[in-house]
Design a protein that fits this description.
It contains eleven helices and 14 strands. With about 400 residues, the chain is of the alpha+beta class. It has two domains: about 20-265, L-amino peptidase D-ALA esterase/amidase, CATH 3.60.70.12; about 275-395, ArgJ beta chain, C-terminal domain (Ubiquitin-like (UB roll)). The strands form three sheets. The chain has a five-stranded mixed sheet with strand order 3-9-8-7-6, sandwiched between helices. Strands 12-11-13-10-14 form a five-stranded mixed sheet, sandwiched between helices.
């Protein structure tokens, strides 16, 4: 989806913006495949970042919060398959050592490196194998930094079934985003792991404002299972190599890219077979619209109905009605539509049932609700709930 001519998908092969390079390798975090990645700018940069509000935020988040405060991050390193959460003082020391080693390879200050760690909670990092890996990476130096965005996106994956990348352009500048996340996904302030790299020239204040606006309307409108991760991180790094761009156009392009990644994560939710999109319109304000939409997209009964292609609109009314603090909502003012067909208050005729079932069988299912209270509107993204979600999570550590 494109908002305007300034925010367009780039038809060229996916590559890093000018001045960025990346590395991936196998550090023993999982049995096979790359599980450690680094993306870095060759020159100083400005940055903005947001993190989980979980009370059990992991050492990677705690350390990265401190490093992100100066808004001059230049590099991101990610460890996959192990969240390094609830690992005590040793976990904090291990995260700091990883950052120290990455900074040494790159020849930059430690506080310009952000670290992300994702995967199983409560297990210490396998530092002997990680140290051996970084020793070899240090020997090879920057010559080993030949990975592309798809390589890094794959190296970040845990239960994802496919890598998630997106690209937009603003004038001469490119914006490249990578993300992972399909479970334990109910963002609050930030979401999963999502990194954006750009050669656009943007001030720290404009970058921070653009990121917060984008996150509020995209990543924070995403939910797979209502569970907020302990490791959620989203960051954008801009090195200005392509020169300055219009701040408003950049903000639009960043939001469009984040929406692209949001849709990819929702469609790849653990065990998901369909993308579920819920729009609430005519709400009293944006917060109400988003709150009601989230209650629908998060309802297990709605999600299982979508999985079974069952146009059970009564479950949508239930999900709206359980918001008992929203006393201004009156059933007589509410409408519900599945794929454009009204199901409440005008109950669908028998001859439209087949059309509704066809709508529910689509890869993307749209549910639209109007509250009749005002002009505010919000759209949130999620997925259906299948038996495979249970299988993935029941066997996650065994």
């Amino acid at each position: 989806m494109t908002h305007d001519h300034a925010s367009t998908q780039d038809p060229s092969p996916l590559a890093w913006p000018t001045g960025f390079r990346a590395y991936t390798g196998h550090g023993g975090l999982r049995e096979h495949g790359d599980d450690i990645s680094i993306v870095a700018s060759d020159q100083p940069a400005v940055s903005a970042a947001m993190f989980t509000q979980s009370l059990f935020a992991g050492p990677a988040v705690v350390l990265s919060r401190a490093h992100a405060a100066a808004q001059n991050l230049r590099a991101v390193t990610t460890l996959a398959q192990n969240a390094n959460v609830a690992t005590g003082r040793q976990g904090a020391e291990n995260a700091a050592e990883v950052v120290r080693r990455v900074a040494g390879i790159l020849g930059m200050p430690e506080d310009e490196v952000l670290i992300g760690s994702t995967g199983v909670i409560g297990r210490p990092l396998p530092m002997p194998t990680i140290r051996t890996h970084f020793d070899e990476a240090a020997r090879r130096g920057l010559a080993a930094f030949t990975a592309g965005p798809l390589d890094v996106a794959r190296a970040m994956m845990t239960t994802d079934t496919r890598p998630k990348t997106a690209i937009r352009t603003v004038g001469p500048a490119r914006i490249v985003g990578i993300a992972k996340g399909v479970g334990m996904l109910e963002p609050n302030m930030a979401t999963m792991l999502a990194y954006v790299f750009t050669d656009a020239g943007v001030s720290p204040a404009d970058l921070d404002s653009a990121l917060r606006t984008a996150v509020d309307r995209t990543f924070n409108c995403l939910s797979v299972d209502t569970d907020t991760s302990t490791s959620d991180t989203v960051a954008v790094i801009a090195n200005g190599a392509a020169g300055p761009v219009d701040p408003a156009e950049f903000s639009d392009a960043l939001a469009d890219l984040c929406l692209d990644l949001t849709r990819q994560m929702a469609g790849d939710g653990e065990g998901a077979t369909k993308l579920l999109r819920v729009t609430v319109a005519q709400a009293g304000d944006y917060k109400q619209a988003k709150r009601i939409a989230k209650s629908v997209v998060n309802s297990p009964l709605v999600k299982t109905a979508v999985y079974g292609a069952d146009p059970n609109w009564g479950r949508v009314l239930m999900a709206v009605g359980k918001n008992t603090d929203d006393t201004d909502i009156a059933p007589s003012n509410v409408t519900v539509r599945f794929g454009g067909i009204e199901v409440y208050p005008e109950e669908p005729k028998a001859d439209t049932l087949g059309k509704l079932v066809d709508i529910m069988r689509r890869d993307e299912v749209d549910i639209a609700i109007t509250l009749g209270l005002g002009q505010a509107e919000a759209t949130v993204y999620g997925c259906d709930l299948s038996a495979d979600y249970i299988r993935v999570n029941a066997d996650y550590t065994t």
